[in-house]
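Internal ticket - ligand job 267, 1,1-dimethyl-prolinium:
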Amino acid sequence: GSTASVGESVEYKITGIDPGAGIMKATSSALEEYELTDWELVEGSGAAMTAALQKAYKKEEPIIVTGWTPHWMFSKFDLKYLEDPKGVYGEAENIHSIARNGLAEDLPGVHKVLDQFFWTPDEMGVVMSAIQDGTAPEEAAAAWVEDNADKVAEWTEGAEKGNGEEVKLAYVAWDSEIASTNVVAKILTDLGYEVTLSQVEAGPMWAGVADGSVDAHIAGWLPLTHADQYEKYEGDFEDLGENLEGAKTGLVVPAYMDIDSIEDLKE
Ligand code: PBE
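stdout (structure tokens):
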């Protein structure tokens, strides 16, 4: 027959996101490890990736993207991860909260909330989906906080209230982090702090916490995705531990595509 190979059908392109993301580095390793020498990882952004996915999906066209969970795309589209028999994308990931050194002394209430903040992929999913459906991130976060007073009470338990002290949180414009960072910002604001969010790339997010120009971020994907930054700045930040368990990264395709494994991309 004249059926095109998967590679031909997508012009040997994988639709990536921002170059600083850990998943981009993992995908470059995957191209090497699986000897996908003809393939190209195309840089873009989280928003451009989901737009491309949406467009392809509507027409039932093939597409391969760098994807991750939690992400609203799995509830909007029928998707699957390609199997990764070489384990390039690691085992399950967890998301950690990362504070600057000295935060516990300077702003103990903020430190406590960040330390106690822990939610589930489903909870994050509610906020992500609301944002995806067009609600402004601050509004989606505020609605979630209002609807989940019990959870918020757990996270703020014993935390000193603020009196307008400034708190700077950095984040990258990944859908998962837009959701989580806005929720934590809302909680800290309600507690009396003056919260500023700065949207940056992954490198500066870690660097900012390490040099103290930022108080914290809650977007540390570990043990694999941000391993480089973790090692680079180890000692210059405080790892407050997991705020979400059971995250995952990998190559993602629409379920209608007739491939199952990264190895199938060689054919
Ligand atoms: N992600 C989402 C990020 C971490 C959060 C998987 C796109 C990354 O690859 O660095």
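Auto-summary: The chain has a mean pLDDT of 97. Residues 94-246 form a domain with the Dipeptide-binding Protein; domain 3 fold (CATH 3.10.105.10).
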